[in-house]
Specification:
Length: 69
Amino acid sequence: MRALAIGGFLTAVLLFAAVEWASRRAGSRVPSLGDVCAFVMRYEVGPVPVGRIGLFGFWWWLGWHFLAR
């Protein structure tokens, strides 16, 4: 079961790397990870920065699940 989880995470990392590589080719219409994060960070509902709160929550969740032991 542990090997399956590790394989899943390695697959996700490889997919992220492939998309980032594809986004940096000349004439590519695929947005880079930085462009996607910038778009999410600009999202607001009225005066509330929902995108920033969501991104902060994602990083908190990620740290909680992988760094807290």
